[in-house]
TrEMBL record:
<dbReference type="GO" id="GO:0016705">
    <property type="term" value="F:oxidoreductase activity, acting on paired donors, with incorporation or reduction of molecular oxygen"/>
</dbReference>
<keyword id="KW-0408">Iron</keyword>
<dbReference type="Pfam" id="PF00067">
    <property type="entry name" value="p450"/>
</dbReference>
<dbReference type="InterPro" id="IPR002401">
    <property type="entry name" value="Cyt_P450_E_grp-I"/>
</dbReference>
<comment type="similarity">
    <text>Belongs to the cytochrome P450 family.</text>
</comment>
<protein>
    <submittedName>
        <fullName>Uncharacterized protein</fullName>
    </submittedName>
</protein>
<keyword id="KW-0479">Metal-binding</keyword>
<keyword id="KW-0560">Oxidoreductase</keyword>
<dbReference type="GO" id="GO:0005506">
    <property type="term" value="F:iron ion binding"/>
</dbReference>
<dbReference type="InterPro" id="IPR036396">
    <property type="entry name" value="Cyt_P450_sf"/>
</dbReference>
<keyword id="KW-0349">Heme</keyword>
<dbReference type="InterPro" id="IPR001128">
    <property type="entry name" value="Cyt_P450"/>
</dbReference>
<dbReference type="GO" id="GO:0020037">
    <property type="term" value="F:heme binding"/>
</dbReference>
<dbReference type="GO" id="GO:0004497">
    <property type="term" value="F:monooxygenase activity"/>
</dbReference>
């Protein structure tokens, strides 16, 4: 039976791919690789990765050990899955392993790899990290914004008091508080929520989508010649996510730029975005910041800080609720040191001589 033209072309492509793979594997330098499962042609070990990759890799590590080798398509992957291996990669040899792979999520939803999470290791990443440490999160700046944290915490407590006696989904309240804190610190005011152009629900949906897309295993990242097919639909979602983020951030940047133009020489930075825009206009900056760079860092601050901070506090409170004795001890220390009608001050986090429970509750 005569094959249709498309089938003949597919067979030729697959045969050529296998031939090239065989030739390259023989010419490639032999490495002493860690143990790992045997890989299939083209897909490697992708067939062993299920819908929850971290669980699949954990199951494989039980069989092949804390250091193993996997093949994801054309990309070799070494997995460390023990505290010792984590120290080896993240501390002992952190510089050697500091680079980030150029995956599609960084291209489409992080302004061409411009954010701190997905930017490749190099001059830009080091400059952006230094800016965040010295300009945005310095002790002086955080202290100047302490009133924002106090106000938002009091709003949280009032909201919880209104629903006292009812079953409460604490995560929602914590996310609202963190979103209020971060948006006021980074943007100067609340651009998200009631009376704004973007509802809280829409932002939370965007934040959830961002987290999901940063954790997916996109086949096109590991089998490049299949990238254009977008078999899982992830690239389409990444592009949509990038456009949503840009529609949120661009008007905010325009508003900040307009205030700077109107105030002229009398302009004073009121928030972190003002600081980033000032640095972007600095001609003497060693590594220039583009407008997209500013958006990417701002996106990191908004989405990353809101989600991770809320989850951390939720986890800490859940652990206290599961351990009534520790909760009672923490409550007693807070009542004795801070008193029951005051918030924990910022100094409690920075001063090591204060009771240990203050670090958790703060």
């Amino acid at each position: 039976m005569e094959l249709p033209p498309w089938a003949a072309c597919l067979i030729i492509v697959l045969a050529t791919t296998l031939l090239l793979k065989t030739i390259l594997s023989r010419c490639r330098r032999a490495y002493n690789l860690p143990p790992g499962p045997k890989s299939w042609p083209i897909i490697g070990n992708l067939n062993l990765i299920g819908p929850l990759p971290h669980r699949s890799i954990h199951a494989l590590s039980k069989k092949y050990g804390p250091l193993m080798h996997l093949q994801f398509g054309s990309v070799p992957v070494v997995v460390g899955s023990s505290p010792e291996m984590a120290k080896f990669f993240l501390k002992t040899h952190d510089t050697a392993y500091a680079d980030r792979p150029r995956f599609a999520v960084g291209k489409y939803s992080a302004y061409e790899y411009s954010d701190l999470l997905l930017a490749p290791y190099g001059p830009y990443w080091r400059r952006a990290r230094k800016i965040c440490a010295a300009e945005l999160f310095s002790a002086k700046r955080l202290e100047s914004l302490e009133h924002i944290r106090d106000e938002e915490v009091r709003i949280l407590l009032r909201n919880l008091d209104r629903v006292s006696g009812c079953v409460v989904r604490l995560k929602d309240h914590l996310q609202m508080m963190m979103l209020g804190v971060i948006s006021r610190m980074v943007l100067g005011k609340k651009y998200i929520g009631e009376g704004t152009s973007l509802s809280t629900e829409k932002f939370m949906e965007m934040m959830k989508e961002f987290s999901v897309l940063n954790g997916v295993l996109n086949i096109g990242d590991f089998v490049p010649w299949l990238d254009w097919l977008d078999l899982q639909g992830y690239v389409r979602r990444m592009k949509r996510m990038g456009k949503m983020s840009d529609r949120l951030l661009e008007p905010i940047l325009e508003e900040h730029d307009e205030r700077r133009r109107l105030e002229g020489d009398a302009f004073m930075a009121r928030d972190m975005l003002d600081v980033l825009l000032q640095l972007a206009d600095d001609p003497n900056l060693e590594v220039p910041l583009s407008r997209n760079n500013v958006k990417a860092i701002t996106q990191d601050l908004l989405i990353g800080a809101t989600d991770t901070s809320a989850m951390t506090v939720e986890w800490a409170i859940s652990e206290l609720l599961k351990n009534p004795e520790i909760l009672a001890k923490a409550t007693e220390e807070l009542d004795n040191v801070v008193s029951c009608d005051r918030l924990v001050p910022l100094e409690a986090v920075l001063e090591p001589r204060l009771p240990a429970c203050l670090y958790t509750v703060a």
